[in-house]
Write a structure and sequence with these properties.
globular; 3 strands; 3 helices; alpha+beta
Length: 101
């Protein structure tokens, strides 16, 4: 993920100006990265393991999905994105057909 973010920042210099690069905000390690933006939003990566069960995310990208265990994908990873979509004011429309909660 770190490599892709660096590639995007090279292609779109405005992206790098939006990242919050202060110490402790954007973190990199061998197995985990988190990128925080100046507007308060963030994105990170999660492992395709049982330890990711119960986490919540709004969207996801699965790289090399052939190598991901199908049971873990269906029982752990996909349910992390099973949360309600929010309106601009933060409310939830219960009648929306895309609402998965």
């Amino acid at each position: 993920m770190e490599e892709k973010v660096n590639e995007i920042c090279t292609l779109v210099p405005a992206m790098e100006r939006e990242l919050d690069l202060r110490p402790g905000k954007t973190k990199h390690s061998k197995d985990y990265c988190i990128y925080r933006f100046k507007n308060g939003s963030w994105f990170d990566n999660i492992a395709a393991r049982e330890t990711s069960r119960g986490k919540r995310r709004h969207a996801g990208l699965i790289e090399e999905c052939v190598g991901v265990d199908g049971t873990i994908l269906n029982e752990v990873i996909i349910p992390t994105m099973n949360i309600a979509r929010r309106c601009m004011d933060g409310s939830i429309q219960r009648d929306e057909s895309l609402n998965k909660s």
